[in-house]
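Hi there,

I know you've been waiting on this one. I reran it after we fixed the sequence typo, so this is the corrected version. Both the input and the resulting structure follow.
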Amino acid sequence: QVQLQESGPGLVKSSQTLSLTCTVSGGSITTHYYAWSWIRQPPGKGLEWMGVIAYDGSTYYSPSLKSRTSISRNTHKNQFSLQLRSVTPEDTAVYYCSFRTYWGKGTLVTVSA
């Protein structure tokens, strides 16, 4: 069974870069045709898909976040990471990593003004 665990700072200052890592166990991020996503949920709002990194390292981003988002991976550690640049308090959310029906528990990131 695949398990995912988000990690990273819970507080980021405005204009800085939010960086999170997802550690995967029970499956390899390089397995053919697998794709690994980042999703977030601001307080009181719905889920927002941010982007995905595929088994071959290719990436796809939400058009609304593309200019500020990067997703990368470390295949040796079986991890993939999210960077969101120039954050504002509107980026405060619970951030999740996911694979198909498997989700991490999520991590709350608060952006201070």
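Quick highlight: The two ends are 40 Å apart (CA to CA).

Best,
R. S.
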